[in-house]
Amino acid sequence: MLTGKRILLVVSGGIAAYKSLELIRRLRERRATVRCILTKGGAEFVTALSLAALSEDKVYTDLFSLTDESEMGHIRLSREADLVVVAPATADILAKMAQGLADDLATTALLASDKAPLIAPAMNLRMWHHAATQANLALLESRGVRRVGPGEGPMACGEFGLGRMAEPAEILAAIEAELAAGPLSGRRAVVTSGPTHEPIDPVRFIGNRSSGRQGHAIAAALARRGAETILVSGPTAEPDPPGVTVRHVETAEEMLSSCRAALPADVAVCAAAVADWKIANPAAQKLKKAGGKPPRLELAANPDILSTLSGADNARPRLVIGFAAETEHVVENAIAKRAAKGCDWIVANDVSPHTGTFGGQQNTVHLISAGDVEHWPTLSKVEVAERLVDRIIRHFAAQT
Questions:
Q1: Is the pLDDT of residue 289 over 90?
Q2: Residue 36 annotated as catalytic
Q3: From 3.40.630.30, 3.30.70.20, 3.40.50.10300, 1.10.10.60, which CATH number describes the 188-399 domain?
Q4: At residue 135, does pLDDT exceed 70?
Q5: pLDDT score at 71
Q6: Inter-residue contact 326 to 357 (CB < 8 Å)
Q7: In this structure, are residues 259 and 303 in contact, taking their beta carbons and an 8 Å threshold?
Q8: pTM of the complete model
């Protein structure tokens, strides 16, 4: 399964680094190519010679190597790999990854990578449970970083608890799963995300508080399962998900045009918070105050993207999923919306200010299909995305 696959293994500073030697051996047995980056801390526990002997390749340690960096080695290392694995992933390197620091070869290569890494955390149980570590982990997972472990058990420090690095066999299985052809291979997905900005004049616009975090997480999850994924994103601060084709737009009309251009597709997930209205005649110049009176703004309806995709004759996706952002009667309004829009499923959520859904890390949703309502517990937006994609996979499997 791993024949010819190229793994870049980052070994950071923790006692669990000794497990990386066994991981390399198992990867080489499966005919994977392994290149290693050894951090200064990692070199306190294992030697570059041991890694080189097992990987049968050069071990990289120095960001400022004249020979390696003359070829921009930190970029080449990450770009040439099929998968980047950080094992062990200490609290220190997780914090640096979360903050985008690049003060050595390992963190620079990770920041320069065009693909999300797989991490195997390893640290003392109190470090693992610390609020800072958990916040860093949530941020990394929202960016598409996947992890295996940690496990629970006795530690080198003498304590017992959660924080042990996953065993080499577990990490190997996770690597094989990452590199295997996903269950959505051969399928095409279109996802909309974020808000739209409808111009009032060249300076001002009508918008909303959507962060795009949920839609981006769904696009990343679809891509990880093998789908060719096109993300049509309104203005958002979220980074482009790895492995996803992203088309950036501003307005609802631009979003609809990009969605149409992305068809045909097997599944469309309309997670964007599209503005219902736009200014009928946006001003060509910045509007000025006229005697202290506000200007008169005439509104016009925006195109309904969900209805348009649901009603497409020849190019309708086989599965069309909408989102219903509600502040009251969440399920009842969403059931009515599904019927009115003609889509297959609606994901309903409460976006009232007290929920913190807009701009937050968590979401509480209800999946509504024909004749059924699933009430999901409060989950991180990454977990909501994974659970929704699992349902999409089961839906297509049932049709074959």
A1: no
A2: no
A3: 3.40.50.10300
A4: yes
A5: 55
A6: no
A7: no
A8: 0.66
